Amino acid sequence: MTQAWTHETSPFHEGERRIQERAGVRERTELQGQRVIRDHLPNQHREFYENLPFLLLGSVDSEGRPWASLVAGSPGFIQSPDAGHIHLNTTALSGDPLDKNLQEDTYLGVLGIEPATRRRNRFNGRAAQVNKGGFDIRVDQSFGNCPKFIQTRDVAYVTPSEHDLTPVAREVDLSDTDVVRTITTADTFFIATAYSDGSGSATMGADVSHRGGKPGFLRIADESSILFPDFIGNNHFNTLGNIEMNPQAGILFIDFEKNGLVYMTGKAETIWDGPEVVGFDGAKRLTKITPSKIIATQNTLPLRFEFGDYSPFLSKTGSW
Predict the structure, then answer these.
(1) CATH superfamily of 35-310
(2) Which tens digit of pLDDT belongs to each residue from 129-163?
(3) Distance separating alpha carbons of residues 158 and 276, to the nearest angstrom
(4) How far apart are CA 63 and CA 97, in angstroms?
(5) How far apart are CA 155 and CA 235, in angstroms?
(6) pLDDT tens figures, 3-19
(7) What is the largest CA-CA distance in the chain?
(8) Any residues with CB less than 8 A from the CB of 7 and at least 6 apart, and which?
(9) Is the distance from CB of 135 to CB of 88 less than 8 angstroms?
(10) Cβ(242)–Cβ(269) under 8 Å?
(11) Whole-prediction pTM value?
């Protein structure tokens, strides 16, 4: 395979390299990254994004806190005029912190996922041409992801109408009934992280990633935090590498029951060893999030999901 990364420096920043070293995969992950990480979107990825009814984004607010978000539209709302950027004909959903975070040159992490086929691709970049009707995202780094731990679901976009229920957004805590239900029954969520040393390097910025597991793989560890396992992945360690340098994260849960979303942001910690790590089947590490702010929305999601199958990779993983 020819080298895809054409920069002289590594495609990974210091935090990612530290975690790769600790996990014992530094050398081979560097070689892999040089082969698969690009500074543009290959045509296959461009076509993939253009056919999606939703997209996950990671952004950072004015206080430096990461948030994970979802934007949606009828397939075709995402366009890729060239390999260097995409254009989105959409805006933030009601109650989503992205509405305030999205400004010119804002760092954005991007995840495109097609649950029905378990296909996913990612890229990191910056916002451009932000206006009331949509925005562009310029590409800094792009790469594909494997289908591990993705549950299949058919997804359909539903055009909002005047007959829809009124959107509701509430600031809540971990004792909220809807939040507890959504977290403890989740088989999927998304995590956003960010790091920048001010250099403007293509390795810097925001990231958003998928996490999947058996229902119950997330635990409300105490009144103020949640705990979940880190299973083996592509060994890039984009999420944990960002947390290594900037111990904060944003989490997004889909509330399938009430067509809403649960957004949270807060302190992030990686737990490398101990009885809880050893006792959780399939876990290589644990991640602990202590939220500083949680927003729960209802009637805000213009998507309908129909569950299919659990990932076959979950057979070797546990739950709390």
Answers:
(1) Electron Transport, Fmn-binding Protein; Chain A (2.30.110.10)
(2) 999 999 999 999 999 999 999 999 999 999 988 76
(3) 42
(4) 12
(5) 29
(6) 689 888 999 999 999 99
(7) 56
(8) 39, 202
(9) yes
(10) no
(11) 0.96
